[in-house]
Amino acid sequence: MARGRVPCSALSSLAMGVLARAALLCVAGTVLGIAGNRFTPRPAPLGAPVAASAEQPGAACENPGASVARISVEEAKPLCLACTAAFIDARSAPEYAAGHVTGALHLPPEGPVEALLPALRSAPAVIVYDRDRACSAANQVAARLQAYGLRDVRVLTGAWPEWLARGGPGESGACGLCAGDRP
Amino acid sequence: MTRLVLTAIRVALGALFLWAAATKLPDLANFAQDVANYRVLPPMLVPYASAAVVGIEILSGLALVTGVAAKPAALLAAALLVAFIVFLAQALLRGIDLRCGCFGGDEPASWWTVARDFAMLAAAVVVARGSPHQQQGGHTLAA
After folding, report:
1. What ipTM is given for this predicted complex?
2. Are the beta carbons of B10 and B127 closer than 8 angstroms?
3. What is the Cα–Cα distance from A71 to B119, expressed in whole angstroms?
4. How far is A64 from chain B (nearest CA, A)?
5. Does residue B41 sit in helix, strand or coil?
6. By CA distance, what is A159's nearest residue in B?
7. pLDDT digits (tens, 9 = 90+) for A12-40
């Protein structure tokens, strides 16, 4: 054997040792997490099923930690029909073009806000929605609008699928006013 | 790679894991909801997996920061990051719009999040492999 070299078997046993300790660390971490769960302020509900937000009837977008107020489809529909609220669609441009709330403007989370501000500032309320009942994109957009000084900004619970399911007014086509959607 | 650089990567990775765990600990119920929204695990398994992930993040983070069992911890961190990447990628490819759940808050899952996890995975692999000096004096597989 050349100086400074070790047999393959020695290195293999070294690797096995690292693997074994990694597995041990994994088991210890799992035990720590599950045992320590109940000592946390809001523990995970061990023993109870946790389904995706979109699969929980009536609980769509209901996040107790949300910084943006919510509004239900039933509450939002009259505001849409009376044009007393501006609607913002936070989904992708193709999704918006395929169908959106009547009169809604398109603003994805990274989209330019400035061009829409005059229209939004003239509306008594702004309602933001996306495609998923977790409302992640809508939350992002709503937080950005609040940062621009818009006061009454709300996120639509149930999102676009709920709007459609409950017969909310819709239309299709690109957004003419939205800077990000212009070719 | 110098020992100093390797140590810096190890400590930074460990600190990131500890930070990730710290942001989840105040609201594990919310983190469990984030995990459920990926729609990969059976609902009954979600709360256990969520609690376990945080426990593993704490232990591997501590091990990486202190340097005790750093290589096994880096290996475990790499395995966890591969799982995160798979979870994120499948959700994005299926068009599921959800919070990442990575560092608490409302950060949405995106390809940027996947890229960040790949960067952390690269760091974990570097630490798991260690420097040539740490591998028993630069030994090779040659007999």
Report:
1. 0.88
2. yes
3. 39
4. 9
5. coil
6. B97
7. 777 888 999 999 999 999 999 999 999 99
